[in-house]
Q: What sequence folds into this?
């Protein structure tokens, strides 16, 4: 494939990037190589916020690396922004790269906000001061929240305080 396409990708439609509102078929996404992002012992590829900047905030198009990450199990470090104050545990929250983001205006760009939902049926302990690792399935999907529009959804299975 010309133009720096993904090696081993034989689908002709891979030439045209997809918009963020297009549903993804997880089974068609290749596995994320450990060389592209770190991998932990539990099978979650560690990704970084600069990788999420591969989502163009104006067009909604994702770069090839982000396309590769979408639909896979990832681990991302960040700060929780719960939707309600006063709760010690939540099942939905935003994950952002810096402490205090989204609680002021303007919010961070959509490619720096992840809408996380606990998929285990258990709530996660709110950690507003400390950074956390959130592990789960990452999708490129535009989602509105009280604190701004998120460019990603994360079906979280684990939240733990970092370090």
A:
């Amino acid at each position: 494939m010309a133009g720096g396409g993904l090696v081993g990708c034989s689908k002709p439609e891979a030439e045209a990037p997809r918009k963020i509102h297009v549903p993804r078929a997880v089974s068609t996404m290749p596995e994320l190589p450990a060389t592209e992002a770190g991998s932990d012992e539990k099978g979650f590829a560690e990704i970084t916020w600069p990788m999420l900047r591969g989502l163009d905030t104006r067009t909604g198009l994702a770069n090839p690396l982000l396309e590769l990450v979408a639909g896979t199990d990832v681990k991302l470090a960040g700060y929780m922004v719960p939707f309600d104050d006063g709760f010690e545990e939540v099942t939905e929250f935003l994950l952002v790269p810096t402490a205090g983001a989204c609680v002021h205006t303007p919010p961070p760009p959509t490619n720096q906000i992840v809408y996380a939902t606990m998929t285990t049926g258990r709530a996660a302990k709110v950690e507003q001061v400390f950074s956390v690792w959130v592990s789960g399935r990452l999708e490129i999907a535009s989602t509105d929240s009280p604190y701004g529009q998120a460019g990603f959804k994360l079906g979280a299975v684990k939240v733990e305080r970092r370090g």
The longest strand covers residues 132-145.
